[in-house]
């Protein structure tokens, strides 16, 4: 980034029950591609995508606070768009595939649908995450389901 450019910063919050654990998983997952770091004391993960772009995720009681910094507005909008609801495909094992109840939450370990259900998003957005996005990405599957009246 040249000295005349100003970085663009965006902030967001992803609601979830165990933000520290989720951030640790993301740091581990992205660690093969980026020099990610995790500070256990602060519950903070850093994701340096390039010299001018990075994201910091910090655990908060209500979820994950996300700060995204990019070199310009267009790139910031692009990176935010990557994780928009229109790009999320929901996948899960069938209920009962993982037996047992999480003693800290009282929910079955494999009950992941509840995380999407708990989000503060419209019914249309939930439908897109659970079904619509997959039908868009996999048009042959969509055609088969339509043939069966689904």
Describe the structure using short key phrases.
single chain, alpha+beta, TATA-Binding Protein, five-stranded antiparallel β-sheet, 5 strands
Brief rundown of the structure:
The protein has 150 residues and is of the alpha+beta class. The chain is built from five helices and five strands; from the N terminus they run βαββββαααα. Helix 4 packs across helix 5.
Q: Can you put this structure into words, describing what you see?
A:
The protein is of the alpha+beta class and 150 residues long. It is built from five helices and five strands; from the N terminus they run βαββββαααα. A five-stranded antiparallel beta sheet has the order 1-5-4-3-2. A hairpin with a 2-residue loop joins β4 (54-60) and β5. α4 packs across α5 (139-147).
Query: What composes the largest sheet?
Result: 5 strands, antiparallel
Please tell me the total number of domains: 2
Distance between the termini: 50 Å
CATH architecture of the largest domain: 2-Layer Sandwich
Give the strand tally: 5
Beta-strand share of residues: 15-25%
Q: Identify the CATH homologous superfamily of the largest domain.
A: Alpha-D-phosphohexomutase, C-terminal domain
Q: What is the multimeric organization of the chains shown?
A: single chain
Low-confidence stretches: none
Give me the CATH fold name of the largest domain. TATA-Binding Protein
Coarse shape: globular
């Amino acid at each position: 980034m040249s000295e005349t450019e100003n970085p663009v910063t965006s902030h967001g919050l992803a609601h979830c029950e165990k933000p520290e654990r989720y951030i640790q998983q993301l740091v581990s997952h992205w660690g093969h591609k980026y020099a990610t770091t995790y500070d256990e004391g602060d519950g903070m993960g850093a994701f340096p995508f390039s010299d001018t772009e990075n994201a910091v995720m910090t655990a908060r009681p209500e979820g994950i606070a996300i700060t995204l910094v990019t070199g310009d507005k267009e790139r910031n909008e692009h990176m935010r768009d990557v994780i928009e609801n229109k790009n999320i495909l929901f996948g899960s094992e069938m209920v009962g595939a993982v037996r047992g109840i999480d003693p800290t939450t009282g929910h079955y370990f494999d009950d992941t649908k509840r995380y999407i259900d708990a989000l503060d998003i419209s019914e249309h957005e939930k439908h897109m995450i659970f079904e619509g996005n997959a039908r868009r990405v996999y048009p042959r599957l969509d055609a088969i389901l339509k043939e069966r009246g689904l």
